[in-house]
Design brief:
It is a single chain. The chain is an alpha/beta fold. It has 2 domains: 261 residues, P-loop containing nucleotide triphosphate hydrolases (Rossmann fold, 3-Layer(aba) Sandwich); 29 residues, no CATH class. The chain is built from 8 helices and 13 strands. The strands form 3 sheets. It has a 7-stranded mixed β-sheet with strand order 6-7-8-3-9-10-11, with helices on both faces. Strands 2-1-4-5 form a 4-stranded antiparallel β-sheet. Strands 12-13 form a two-stranded antiparallel ribbon. The longest helix is centred in the middle third of the chain and has 18 residues.
Amino acid sequence: MTTSDLSYIDCSGLFKIYKAADLEVVALRGLELNVNRGEIIAIVGASGSGKSTLLNILAGYDFPSAGTIRVGNFDLLQMTSKEIVDYRRHEVGFIWQETSRNLFSYLTALENVELPMVISGTTESERKERANDLLDMVGLSDRLYHKPSQLSGGEQQRVAIAIGLSNQPPLLLADEPTGELDDQTGHEILELLNKVNQDLGTTIVIVTHDPAIATSVGRAVAIKDGKTSTETTREISSERKLGGDTTGTEEFLLIDSAGSVQIPRDMLDNLNIERRVRVDVNNGKVTLEPGD
């Protein structure tokens, strides 16, 4: 059985090309990614690396120019417009970086959390009960009737998490969820996302430019030039606190479906490897030497 057979999210050979007049921008270049059900993962990369493009594709807001992408039983490239709308409504929740973008300014916290359920046809009694439960889970049971202007940035982001979970999606996507928050508040939001993952079993994908965020999750995948490059796995302490002790940290290079490996530039520089490399396999080990 292959890794993709076990995956909840399976991206293979994803390309995304944006065109504006005569200009073409390649945002994704054959990206490969597998995420297991119930996993929390960080996608880490600099601005322009392709991480937000990937998140928008996973959310069904955008589509790749080539490649395949499956989320659970959904083949996102074979779905009708109506099926995509249903997918966004029930399969995936989304948290934007801008705290104000997640909320309607004229609705209370409770009403904001109820709104996706109203659109989905959930009964009034059920949606009120669920909205109350979600706001209690994110620590805002005393802010039910506050509007966004009466909430701090961290509180707004907590409401956004509750909104993302309102239709009980198995997948939650977070685009730079701590980008507009101070360090302490950002830590609290990441702890909350870990709690959601642990308590509800929700699969969570976080994209960020901040490598420090990767230390709060079990797996972090670096994306560079539109491709996944390295993967770091950690055993998070039982308290799952940001900055807490982690054990068994390992870093891997990733192999795509064509068998290619993207070796970080600093490793190549340390080996004085430029255009060509000599490869030797001996006793179960692969040795790289400069070929120039």
